[in-house]
Amino acid sequence: MRETEVFIDSEEIAEFFYHELIKRGYTPSVQESEELADITFDYLISKCIIEEWDE
């Protein structure tokens, strides 16, 4: 299996969740979308799908 470098931005995830939830009839706050993004990011780290980098 080859390794692929992927950059995941939690702000981009938050924006994605915000728009997807609105399309599905929910009215999330920006803070709620950011919390979901943080949870998603932590999940991906816990499953070793990504690793966190400090720049």
From TrEMBL:
Superkingdom as given in the UniProt entry: Bacteria
Q: What is this protein called?
A: YozD family protein
Query: What's the source species for this entry?
Result: Lederbergia citri
Question: Which lineage do the record's taxonomy fields give for this organism?
Answer: Bacteria, Bacillati, Bacillota, Bacilli, Bacillales
